[in-house]
Amino acid sequence: MPEGDTVWRTARRLHDALAGKVLIRSDFRVPKYATVDLTGRTVLDTISRGKHLLTRFEGGLTLHSHLLMEGAWKVYGTGERWKGGPAHQIRAVLGTDGRTAVGYRLQVLELLRTTEEDRTVAHLGPDLLGPGWDPDLALANLLADPGRELGEALLDQRNLAGIGNIYKCELCFLLGVTPWLPVGALPADRAARLPALAKKLLEANRDRVVRRTTGLRGQDLFVYGRAPRPCLRCGTSVRAAGQGDGSQERPTYWCPTCQSGPAPARGSPRRWREHHDRSVD
Predict the structure, then answer these.
(1) What CATH number is attached to the domain comprising 224?
(2) Could you report the per-residue pLDDT of 16-71, keeping only the tens digit for each?
(3) Which intervals hold domain FPG-type (predicted)?
(4) Does residue 131 have an active-site annotation?
(5) Is 2 one of the annotated active-site residues of the chain?
(6) Whole-angstrom Cα distance, residue 166 to residue 182?
(7) pLDDT digits over 84-103, tens only?
(8) Does 130 map to a domain?
(9) Which end of the chain is more exposed for a tag (fewer CB within 10 A), N or C?
(10) Of 49, 199, 239, 250, which is the active-site residue?
């Protein structure tokens, strides 16, 4: 699933292409909205809220979309070939004079009144890349369930919005603890650092196509996707295991030397091959 910085870039791309323009094409290829026609309406803006996208139109309407694991919005110029996937994967088309936004594989697509946006995003915790960021509330949300594994708590968008599996792994490495550490066992000084560190990482990467967390030349990430290569700090082989249950299990990476705390229970997690890891998030 895309991280919050990827969704932020998608929102900016849609906003730059459509905002202030009148729609001359509107095509929703989902049964519920097959007869909806937004042509003639001006696009007001597109914003991100965590991993959610909200595109607003004059007349008080908002298109809510979520990329989940495989969704994407692509923007094309006049006459440009659409290359985001086969036609049967297209769920929405919004066209202006000169630019067309095409939504592929969007499993969440909802048209609602702008005044009702809160029912889709009000459950989110403070948005790391949005207005009203509140680090104290984010930390309080995380600490509210002290027995929960830190990695799982970081992925819960109700605590703070925007962290995905890559940042989960990288944050835990930078904090020096494993993703299986109970939140309540996180040392107070490291807990206090967590919200600002998370925000710093996402802000540093929101304008980049290649995500970087290390500051090291030629090395983008500390642990994510690196098993069983050596840790960039200590040389120990980076390890990989699943975290979560069933369909929610995510490939999780850590250095057993640089990160203190519990490892996954022996025999419970499955191992993740590197070629698979890179396609998950």
Answers:
(1) 1.10.8.50
(2) 999 999 999 999 999 999 999 999 999 999 999 999 999 999 999 999 999 999 99
(3) 222-260
(4) no
(5) yes
(6) 19
(7) 999 999 999 999 999 999 99
(8) no
(9) N
(10) 250
If we measure between CA atoms, which residue out of 74, 54, 57 comes closest to residue 66? 54
Which residue in the list 3, 149, 152, 170 is annotated as catalytic? 3
* Residue at 60 is within a domain: yes
- Give me 241's structure tokens: 């295991």
State whether 8 and 115 are in the same domain.
Answer: yes
In the annotation, is 250 catalytic?
yes
Please state at what angle helix 135-143 crosses helix 188-205, rounded to 10 degrees: 120
Domain count, the chain: 2
Residues 58 and 11 in one domain: yes
DSSP 197-241: HHHHHHHHHTT-SS---S-BTTB--SSTT-TTSBPTTT-PBPEEE
Considering 9, 49, 51, 239, which one is annotated as catalytic?
A: 51
Whether 168 is a known active-site residue: answer no
45: in domain: yes
Per-residue pLDDT band at 1 (split at 50, 70, 90): confident
pTM of the model: 0.91
Mean pLDDT calculated for residue range 122-136? 96
Structure tokens at 125: 């915790």
Both structure tokens of 245: 């249950």
E-state strands within the chain: 25-28, 43-49, 52-57, 61-66, 72-77, 90-95, 99-104, 108-113, 239-243, 250-254
